[in-house]
Amino acid sequence: MIKEEAIIIGAGPCGLAAAIELERIGLHPVIIEKSNIAHSISMYPTYMHFFSTPERLEIGEIPFTTPNDKPSRLEAINYYRTAALRNSLRVNAYETVLRVDRQDNGLFRLTSADRYGEEKQYEARYVVVATGYFDHPNYLGIPGEEMDKVTHFFREAHPYTGMEVAIIGGSNSAIDAALELERVGAKVTVIYRGAGYSSSIKPWVRPGFEAKVNNGVIRMLFESRVVEIDKRHVIVESPEGRHPVANDFVLALTGFHPDRDFLTSSGVRIEEEGFPYFDETTMETNVPGLYLAGVVASKHEANEIFIESGRFHGNKIAEHIVSLR
Ligand SMILES: Cc1cc2nc3c(=O)[nH]c(=O)nc-3n(C[C@H](O)[C@H](O)[C@H](O)COP(=O)(O)OP(=O)(O)OC[C@H]3O[C@@H](n4cnc5c(N)ncnc54)[C@H](O)[C@@H]3O)c2cc1C
């Protein structure tokens, strides 16, 4: 049994920010990360740029400088890795937390599997769950979704040159992917259930996208849903009825949701609306000593917490732990 004062699950921006804050109050937390630092960001589209300006992504008051207005994915990975290394954060990489149980003595027992597949047991007074949402795409639950030509993660456009590509969704991820695909010569159809453009689309991106739709370069289907995928088509349902659209690849960019299995298995109360109970001022759940940080604490929509806001959860947790002393 490895004894720790505090364990943070997940080395995304919000888990790292929480670790820096706990270090500042004299705890020396270990972060257990199933992949490596800033894993989710490393899996984002290769050439993406954040919508936030760099200072809004900073953690631990470490300056994030870039000559660009909005940082790129690569700059963000470099920034978070440097922040972790400069603060000498303890990161157990390639180790997955499997269970968190609160024992009768008030301490938590964590079970994990390390990169060699060996089980490890920890005991800790405080646990911060900062597991994000990126592992859990919102599946459509339609026939054909399991086919190899369907992905919920867009990386880069090049493999789609000359192909008929359906993008499902109408948020920034869908719009950015459509523009990138069109530039490499893919034939793009965006299929979106909304009646008009989503208000969340970055205002500096929308005019260019709309122009491409208006010029017929990108096909945009509003009030439409894909109800089935087969080898050569997607079947689209719209107010006019059902019709097939020629298709080689599907990018289902329909968002993500946090997985709350640890939380429920360790006694966290799930509210009627489906999100876990926690105190907004301390980030503590109904289980004393078990905290949430980052996007795992989202309530209705997984996109209501960003790095911009989730990076401050660690401050609340640290303040609460200090107040208990
Ligand atoms: C394309 C895109 C663009 C975005 N742009 C912006 C932006 O401009 N500004 C902004 O503020 N936000 C932006 N966001 C949102 C932002 O990236 C997320 O809100 C942020 O990553 C959340 O950080 P987090 O630390 O909560 O979770 P994550 O970054 O997802 O980190 C969670 C970590 O937990 C690990 N983990 C999960 N389960 C386990 C387990 N069982 N055991 C061990 N480790 C585990 C994961 O591997 C991961 O490393 C964007 C999101 C996307 C998808």
Care to describe what's here?
The chain is 22% helix and 24% strand. It has 325 residues and is an alpha/beta fold. The two termini are 25 Å apart. A hairpin with a 3-residue loop joins strand 11 (225-229) and strand 12 (233-238). The chain is built from 8 helices and 15 strands. The strands form 3 sheets. Strands 1, 2, 3, 4, 5, 6 and 15 form a 7-stranded mixed beta sheet that branches. It is globular and about 65 Å long. It has 2 domains: 2-135 and 256-324, FAD/NAD(P)-binding domain (3-Layer(bba) Sandwich); 150-252, FAD/NAD(P)-binding domain. The mean pLDDT is 95. Residues 9-15, 32-35, 39-40, 44, 48, 50-52, 96-97, 130-132, 134-135, 173, 294-295, 306-308, 310 line the site of flavin-adenine dinucleotide. This is YpdA family bacillithiol disulfide reductase. InterPro entries: Bdr, FAD/NAD-bd_sf, Ferredoxin-NADP_redctase_2. It holds the Pfam family Pyr_redox_3.
What is Rg? 21 Å
Strands, count: 15
Give me the CATH fold name of the largest domain. Answer: FAD/NAD(P)-binding domain
Helix content: 10-25%
State the gist of this model.
The chain has 325 residues and is of the alpha/beta class. It is 22% helix and 24% strand. The protein has helices at residues 13-24, 39-42, 73-86, 172-183, 206-214, 261-265, 307-310, 313-324; strands at 2-9, 30-32, 90-92, 96-102, 108-113, 119-129, 150-151, 164-168, 187-191, 219-221, 225-229, 233-238, 241-246, 249-252, 290-292.
